[in-house]
Design a protein that fits this description.
By secondary structure, the protein is of the alpha+beta class. The chain is built from eight helices and twelve strands.
Length: 377
């Protein structure tokens, strides 16, 4: 074979391979002799059904004394409830997007006697880290329900406790922001002297709130310390069944206004909105929790303007805001934010304080709700 023929053969095989990959060999199936290249026994055969022949392999065993910190069951196949006949599929759905490391912090929030952790990563990312926390403390995870976001430990004794043994339920759900999580805990206890035989049900609140908060604080510190492990290799695909969509969303009304929809109860929404206003540096003139009202002074663009450096000479000239005598002042709006209870949670609407309502005021109200949507936590 001369050099020209060799190059032609290589080019032909490359084209065949590309066609096989792109078109699934539907065209080549009609070419005589193509079965030797792209058929079931061909060089470029279709591999998409090979998973049906996959076998279960033993679990990875970490040698004694070595750390199993970041090892997790990433590709466990969950049981699908209600499905009697298991059907195979050859056209697999696209993979779920895996989030990268977040720069949001881990914080504990409290309201009345309740406390929970807010962490700026998705439930699928924080789930294996919570399991790592229990492993590190030699606590057995007795059960997991990733669809409901519920994890329960076995019975164990906290260090220094000589009277009771504890059991915890951890609930992971989406936070207000997309790709954020809230971690709630419930605790039950029983005397150490009496073996726990009967199932003790969890109550609406922990039996010992102090013990719950102690463990919650310990978990939050652990999650903050392992923030660098929120990466692709530390994602639980099972916990990916928990929605990554936040509890806060913007919805439009037929009149062109917007409302902020919060999938949380009224007290939680009120407290979270108050914190968001404070975090955004918005001046709250008056508030009434019973009426669900915040009266605020809002200056659209002020937050963004505060973050910018002072404009230079040319910027002032071309924006007509300085040397050419233009008006560079931002307009001030007096707005009222009102929380309305709904079946799903709460809706927040904005209206002007006073009779004046024009397109600019409505736009300012929409801007305020957008700011609250990305600030609330």
């Amino acid at each position: 074979m001369n050099l020209h023929s060799y190059k032609y053969a290589i080019t032909t095989l490359a084209c065949i391979a590309a066609c096989a990959a792109i078109s699934g060999c539907s065209m080549l199936a009609k070419v005589p002799g193509a079965g030797k290249v792209v058929g079931d026994n061909g060089v470029f055969r279709d591999h998409k059904g090979d998973y049906l022949k996959a076998e279960t392999i033993p679990r990875t065993k970490v040698p004694q004394g070595k750390d199993s910190f970041i090892i997790d069951d990433l590709l466990v196949i969950p049981e699908l409830p209600g499905i009697v006949k298991k059907q195979a599929f050859l056209d697999a759905p696209p993979p779920r997007e895996i989030e990268v490391k977040s720069d949001r912090e881990v914080v504990i929030q409290r309201m009345d006697k309740s406390a929970w952790i807010v962490v700026g990563v998705s439930p699928s990312q924080v789930w294996p880290r919570i399991k790592d926390y229990w492993r590190k403390n030699n606590v057995v995870v007795a059960s997991e329900n990733t669809n409901a976001g519920v994890m329960e430990t076995g019975w164990f004794v906290l260090a220094g406790n000589v009277t009771t043994q504890e059991k915890f339920r951890v609930v992971v759900e989406p936070g207000f922001q997309d790709n954020s999580s809230e971690i709630h805990m419930l605790q039950i206890e029983a005397p150490q002297a009496v073996p726990v035989v009967a199932q003790i049900p969890f109550q609406a609140k922990s039996i010992n709130a102090d013990t719950e908060f102690t463990v919650l604080t310990s978990l939050s510190g652990f999650l903050a310390d392992v923030a660098d492990l929120y990466q692709a290799s530390a994602v639980s695909f099972l916990a990916g069944n928990i929605s990554n969509n936040g509890k806060a969303a913007i919805a439009s009304t037929p009149g062109g206004s917007e409302v902020l929809v919060l999938r949380a109860d009224y007290d939680r929404s009120w407290a979270a909105l108050g914190r968001a206003l404070q975090r955004a540096g918005i001046d709250v003139q008056a508030q009434d929790a019973e009426q669900g009202v915040f009266d605020v002074v809002y200056i659209p663009g002020k937050i963004e303007d505060d973050k910018k450096e002072k404009p230079g000479f040319l910027h002032k000239v071309w924006t007509l805001g300085g040397l050419l005598g233009g008006d560079d002042k931002l307009k001030v709006y007096n707005l009222r934010m009102k929380l309305l209870k709904t079946k799903e949670g709460v809706e927040v609407v904005v209206s002007p304080v006073g009779p004046t309502k024009d397109a600019a005021t409505q736009e300012a109200g929409n801007s305020l709700l957008e700011l609250m949507k990305i600030t609330i936590a």
